Structures are given as structure tokens and as C-alpha cells.
Give the backbone structure.
Amino acid sequence: MRKNLIKRIVVSLIGIPVLLFCAIYGSYFFLGLMLVILLLSIHEINFLGSKLDISRHNYSGFIFGLLASIDMYLYYGEHIFFLILGYLSLILIIAVFNTRQNNMLEVSFRCFSIFYLSLFLGTLILVREYPFTSGYDIGGKFILVVFLSVWLCDIMAYFGGKSMGKHLLFPRISPKKTVEGAVSGFLSSIGVFIVSHYTFFPELEIKYGIALGITIGVLGQLGDLIESYFKRQTGVKDSSTILPGHGGILDRFDSLIFVSPFVFYFLKFIIVDI
């Protein structure tokens, strides 16, 4: 247990500064970060699919994820609809010539998993590159506070559950998560936005910050449960072992993946410009 904790701390000390650097400076740094996270996530979802007797050789998914991310960076997702049409067409054509018995399950899994990862996670690129009139650095601050909110929610949900947890939250999916831990994470997520407003991000009005904190505090934990559901259905403990002490990319970024589109559309249609 202690050895595992040391591994977690070491990986965090290396990984967090890299993530923050890419978030603050944006441009190709952030695009590269998102591509690495996305492609590794697709690799891991293919591994989970293999536990359901689905082929792991889904190279079309890597290509779609790459093209979708680049389109979001260069054209703000202007061509996403055409990429989706092309990918769906390719998957269906492949299915026609596929002789595997669980072919329909494979088609469904491909479409769901790739769209879930590529389109959800890709919206973070849109958040970072959104053309605010106040300047490019605003996107960096926004990504930074979203990262911090998701991370602290996860940390406080864990420690809140360890110290105060008595009532199980969703034992069918995740037998160790508790209501007390979920509340701790929820409040922490809101707290990050409040503190950020009074420290480095005064441009984000407090009412919007609280609303975003509530959104991340709820949906981030739902994202964690969704990934737990994937693992329980496929009978694995971690999506991979690429991050010592943490598990896989999906294990660490599950909350962020799920909240990303909601954060983007909140920014686009409610905050609009700051």
C-alpha cells in the first residue's frame, strides 16, 4: 500500500507540471497533450473491448481521433460532421465483410467508444483555443481551473470517503465510493472556482464559477462511475498499467472526459465571452 502511494506521488509530481505547462501555454503543446491522452485512451478502450471478444485492431479509431482533434484545433470542429459520416461509413463497410459472430456488438462498441473519447475529450481543445476577445491567456486560465476542479474533486472524494464514509453511493458499480466522499468532492469542486476567482481568475464571474463547480462536481463523479461501469462489465481492475500507482489513462481522465463537452457548451452559450 505504501509502495503504491509513493508511485502515485512520483507520477503526480512529474505529470501535473507537464499538464499545467501545456494548459497555460496552449497552442501545439496542448494539442500534443490531448492527442497523447486521446490515442492512449483509444488503445485502452480497445483493450477493454477485447475482454468482450472484440478485435483490438481498431486503427480506424486512431485515425478518426487524430483527424477530429486536429480539426478542432485548426477549424474549431467545422468538419466534425463530415468526419463522423466518413467514420460511420467506413465502420459499416468493414462490418459487411467481417465474418465474426459478434459483428453487430463490435460495430456498436466501435461507434460508441470512439465518439465518446474523440468528441468528448476533443472539446477541451475547443475550450483552450476558443477566440476570446479578452486574449488567448483566458483559455489557459479556464483549462487550468477545470483541471484543478476535477483533480480536487477526485482527491477529496477519496479522502472524504476514507475518513467519513458510511453510506455507499453506488455499490453495484463501485463498491467503495460513498455518499460522504461524493459530497466532499462536490463541495471541493465548487471551492476551486471560488478561490480561483479571488486569486488568479477574476475575469470569471463568481456566479458562473459556482455554476461550473456544481457541473463538474456532479458530472465529473458520474464520469468516474461510467468508467467503473466499463471496467466492471469487462472484468478488469485498471484500464492499463501505463501510470504506475494510478492505473491507466482512462482511470485518471475519466471525469475530465465526461465533463469536457458540458464545460465547453456552458462557456459557448452561457458565458459567451469574458
About this structure: Residues 64 and 84 are 8 Å apart (CA to CA).
